[in-house]
Amino acid sequence: MTGTTSTPATPGTTTRRKKVVVFDYGFGNVRSAERALARAGADVEITRDYDKAMNADGLLVPGVGAFDACMKGLTQARGHWIIDRRLSGGRPVMGICVGMQILFARGIEHGVETEGLDEWPGSVEPLQAGIVPHMGWNTVDAPEDSQLFAGLDADARYYFVHSYAVHDWTLEITNAAMREPLVTWSTHGKPFVSAVENGALWATQFHPEKSGDAGAQLLTNWIGTL
């Protein structure tokens, strides 16, 4: 892993730490995310307060458990509306694990289909692998111009815990002025989407807050874009 460098501050000035809200809707390792973001240099708060979530430099949406339960919790906390409003204004949002999955159009668990936020088309479906859940360390295949994985070695490993994933990326860009999203893949049985960088919306299927130095660098990269 390559370290980061910073530009010295002008004498007599201070550099403001970026404010990141970890959205607390009842699903997610919010304390682990808080600690990891703070170590990466952010000013972090765990809250579901509307104004704080809207006005933060970055909003991180964690998620653990079932797709359906996470969507219900997010909706009850008005998180779906906050995410949509932030993205409409180009305000950064990052999803982690199920917090990434709910950004897709739908989740299918045990034959039951649940509507997601539909920021991206596609279905979250059971992993197609001999061993499920996918639990432990794995590598990723990131695009060369990825900002999220900048400074990270190609063989860096990240911590995954999941039984469902998106196996097909189906978003088509029809506007020539729009940049093609950067999609990162991993393999457990069949390849699946392990990260996406799409304008103000970024997400990872793995847990950067549990991924050691590589995860810390990744969060530092995200904070650096805020």
Automatic annotation (TrEMBL):
Compartmental location: Cytoplasm
Location of the Glutamine amidotransferase domain: 21-221
Major place of residence: cytoplasm
Q: What is the lineage of its organism?
A: Bacteria, Bacillati, Actinomycetota, Actinomycetes, Kitasatosporales
Residue ranges spanning the membrane: these are none
Instruction: Cite the entry's keywords alphabetically.
Output: Amino-acid biosynthesis, Cytoplasm, Glutamine amidotransferase, Histidine biosynthesis, Hydrolase, Lyase
- What name does UniProt use for this protein? Imidazole glycerol phosphate synthase subunit HisH
Which superkingdom does the taxonomy of this entry point to? Answer: Bacteria
Q: A GO CC term? A: cytoplasm
Which PANTHER family does the protein's record reference? IMIDAZOLE GLYCEROL PHOSPHATE SYNTHASE SUBUNIT HISH
Q: Which organism is it from?
A: Streptomyces uncialis
Enumerate the GO terms in the molecular function aspect: glutaminase activity; imidazoleglycerol-phosphate synthase activity; lyase activity
| Record: active site | 97 (nucleophile), 207, 209
